[in-house]
Design brief:
Layout (H helix, E strand, L loop, with lengths): L6 H13 L6 E6 L3 E6 L7 H5 L6 E4 L3 E4 L4 H14 L4 H17 L2 H13 L3 H20 L3 H16 L1 H12 L4 H12 L7 E2 L2 E2 L6 H22 L2 H64 L5 H12 L4 H5 L1 H16 L4 H15 L4 H11 L1 H22 L4 E3 L13 E3 L2 H27 L20 H6 L13
Antiparallel strand pairs: 1-2, 2-4, 3-4, 5-6, 7-8
């Protein structure tokens, strides 16, 4: 349920609306954890510089939708107010928006990226529950280790574990919803995966176990249910549709799931878990270095969305994902790079204001303002930020190789916000210490690489070796379009 907008949130929405061309130019309104995502009929009507100058706006990203970075919490409060302002212009916007949004997606996304985005859309609505239950699980573990409130820990454990026990049902529901089927039928078929009765079924001599296949099995089962349902609707007479279509959908896709998908998805899920463990246990610092260094480019290409089902599988299978803390080091590299930019460019107030406003969000793991407002427009700092992330990832990977596993019980947060979700093999203290060491390593490496090598050829003043050479002003560079078709500017 959306948070009721306050007068301050309505003021922010009212300030943004005319700068994106007014209500008549807005065709769709949505939001994720940090961004207000708008479908716009004519982007030439956007007054970008004025929009970026708003104190509440941390950055702007141009993708298949026009994305205004407002930060976690804020966007969930501003979006309903903005949507209410747009709705006042008339219901015709909804119809026009659907067509424009479809045209933009077809123009700006490859089929592979579009598929990954849809898969991500299945899991993104589940993130709040993953975070909430993950934090509760961490608190419960702390209570158990300290021997506090023994009569309450069983109830807290049930609160933390209930959602995870049934997550395939939610994945099935969301999958059917995203791919155009009846959501409850997707959930019904996916429920077979966790139904205790499957333990009585043997397939090819192997007895099934409840939960076998996990979220991947649920995803596949719900996709099969969607296509089965659509096939039925095209063939079943309307008078019989309400009876026949749901029955055939659940029966056919359910049997295929039991006698095929659960075995295949179970094998894939096991392979993912084994590969992640082997990668870090055997590769150690090298594997962590590569993963931490490549994550920001994956984000730029939109390929990071493919990791969401992998994280979800690891969390369901092992209780935490060992990949997320390593990938979170990319944000640490960004923070270090941003601090270096701030110190090396004392005579560029625009960029320094951007860093000041975006740095708190970056410390909490919200990287878009620093990426699109600082490092990416400047060029080299983006590369040196990746190097910082690589060193941070290598630090955590090294400890993993020595047996000190660091994982996250949920996906979504990173940076300092990930501390309440940490879980590992060495106890809470050791796990937090290793993660903190990775953050400090990422900060330091990102700072040093950027300070000494990341600002050559960029205008401004600096001191010490490697001072920036004469070149275009940073303010102009930061406002320019990047090769990804995205730009951002934040002000303090």
């Amino acid at each position: 349920m959306p948070t009721p907008p306050t007068s301050e949130n309505r003021a922010v929405a009212a300030a943004i609306l005319p700068l994106v061309g007014g209500a008549a130019n807005v065709t769709s309104v949505a939001h994720c954890m940090t961004r207000l995502r708008l479908g716009l009929q004519d982007r030439s009507l956007v007054r970008g510089e004025e929009l970026r100058a708003l104190p509440a706006v941390l950055g702007v990203v141009e993708d298949d939708t026009y994305q205004i970075v407002l930060g976690p919490g804020t966007v969930a409060r501003v979006a309903p107010a903005f949507e209410a302002l747009v709705a006042a212009a008339g219901p015709s916007l909804v119809e026009r928006g659907a067509a424009v949004k479809a045209a933009q997606k077809a123009r700006n996304a490859t089929p592979f990226k579009a598929f990954l985005r849809r898969i991500a859309n299945v899991f993104v609505p589940l993130i709040p529950a993953l975070i909430g239950c993950g934090v509760i699980a961490g608190l419960n573990g702390l209570l158990v280790n300290m021997g506090l409130l023994p009569g309450l820990t069983a109830a807290v454990a049930a609160l933390a574990g209930g959602f995870m026990a049934l997550i395939p049902v939610f994945v099935g529901y969301q999958t059917a919803k995203e791919f155009g089927g009846t959501p409850v039928l997707g959930g019904a078929v996916a429920a077979i995966v966790v139904f205790p009765g499957v333990a009585q079924i043997a397939v090819f001599g192997h007895r099934l176990s409840p939960g076998q296949g996990g979220v991947l099995g649920a995803l596949g089962a719900a996709l099969l249910a969607v296509y089965t349902e659509k096939a039925c609707r095209n063939r079943v007479p309307a008078a019989l549709d309400v009876l026949v279509t749901p029955t055939v959908t659940v029966l056919v896709s359910g049997l295929v799931t039991v006698f095929g998908l659960m075995l295949v998805a179970g094998a894939v899920s096991t392979a993912i878990g084994d590969f992640a463990g082997l990668l870090l246990s055997g590769g150690g610092a090298i594997a962590g270095f590569v993963l931490g260094g490549l994550f920001l480019p994956l984000v730029m290409l939109g390929l990071h969305q493919a990791l969401i089902p992998i994280h979800a599988t690891l969390i369901e299978q092992q209780g935490f994902t060992v990949l997320l803390p390593i990938l979170a080091m990319a944000g640490a590299g960004q923070v270090g790079a941003a601090v270096a930019v701030y110190l090396r460019l004392p005579h560029d107030p625009a960029v320094r204001a951007t860093v000041r406003s975006a740095l708190p969000a970056g410390l909490l793991g919200v990287g878009e303002p620093l990426i699109y407002g600082v490092s990416l427009p400047l060029g080299r700092p983006f590369i040196t930020a990746c190097v910082g992330g690589a060193f941070g990832g290598g630090f955590i990977g090294l400890f993993h190789m020595f047996g000190d596993t660091v994982g996250s019980t949920a996906i979504g947060p990173s940076g300092w916000a990930l501390f309440p979700l940490l879980q590992g093999s060495g106890g809470l203290g050791m796990t937090a210490a290793v993660y903190a060491g990775g953050l400090l390593t990422g900060y330091a490496a990102g700072f040093c690489c950027t300070y000494w090598f990341g600002l050559r050829g960029v205008g401004g003043s600096g001191t010490g070796p490697g001072a920036p050479e004469a070149g275009p002003g940073v303010s102009e560079a930061a406002a320019s379009e990047t090769g990804t078709g995205s730009s951002a500017r934040a002000t303090g």
